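User: I'm writing a tutorial on reading structure tokens. Could you give me a worked example: one chain, its sequence, then its tokens, then a sentence or two explaining what the tokens reveal?
Assistant: Sure. Here is the example chain.
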Amino acid sequence: MAENEDGQERTERPSEKRLREARENGNLPRSRELATAAVFGAGVLALRATGSSLAHGTQDWLRGALNPDPVLLHEPALLFGHMGRLLLQLLWVMLPLIGVSLLAAFVAPLVMGTLTFSGKSLQPDLGRLNPLSGLKRTWGPESLAELAKSLLRVVLVGGAAGLTIAHGMDVLRSMPNQSLEEAARTGLHFAGRLLLATAGALALLAAIDAPYQKWNWLRKLKMTRQELRDEAKEADGNPQVKGKIRQMQFQLSQRRMMEAVPTADVIVVNPTHYAVALKYDGGSMRAPTVVARGVDEVAHRIREVADRHRVAIVSAPPLARALYREGQLGKEIPVRLYAAVAQILSYVYQLRAWRAGAAPAFPQLGAVAVDEFPNGEGGRR
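And here are its predicted structure tokens:
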């Protein structure tokens, strides 16, 4: 069982974060046998599919290459351009085979799910120069797996080639008695069968190696339970840090709320336990808005700030409790409390007018009718 540096066994499947980091670092499952089988097999199939046109094209190319223009014999300076044209013509003839082989090179990454680019994999790794790491790779379980794979490759490829040759011995013996063209066709047909058998053996080896490489890659990335816990803690955040952040956010929101109290029109209180600050601007607001709210200590601080800035404080216990429970900071008050709040604001405006000398008599606030528990909820403070 794999162990980490602390001696803990790696028994847990790698997390998505660990897999993502491995891919970003270029640590991906790779099967050389699958890549070889894909390119070789695609090349063999393309060769058989385009063999006739490829043979005619090669024949024409050879005819042109072996029968040069006599002018070239008297103009050596033209040989360089002639060689370039010959190479381009040969490349054009071989283009279907080369194109299929290049496309087949993407088959292995697609099958293994590793068709990604990582710039980190191109960076030099000095750790590979460590002789101790090299010895560990040479004599470790990885080297034994590679040795077993090499032996299996010899058995499969050698066995496929040997069986093909054994079954084609009669064909090979008959070739000396055939004409040159017939012998060439027979030889090419036999070579095609040999290549197909070899490609099949490589495909079988790839079918064994690809799942092993994927399993071995996941095995190396396995994690200990402690690593999983540490990763989960890192993803969720340290509870102490999160608590500190929440505390700072709360303090910041409280500071902003207290800064809004002087702008309020009225503070509706319980009178001791609850305090809700309301602001209403008929030109920009559809309804009064809660700019501050609090209970106990926070309510006491709201009242203190309101006293310092001469903001009206009105005692209406049922309404204060209802506003605290149902109102939201920075939001308009609930529709069902419109009438009660309107009564409070009317009283405040009359009080301002009396203080300014615009009203003859001190206003009186009547009973504020509000259904504190509309859904039958109980409890009072």
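What the tokens reveal: The radius of gyration is 43 Å. The chain has a mean pLDDT of 81.
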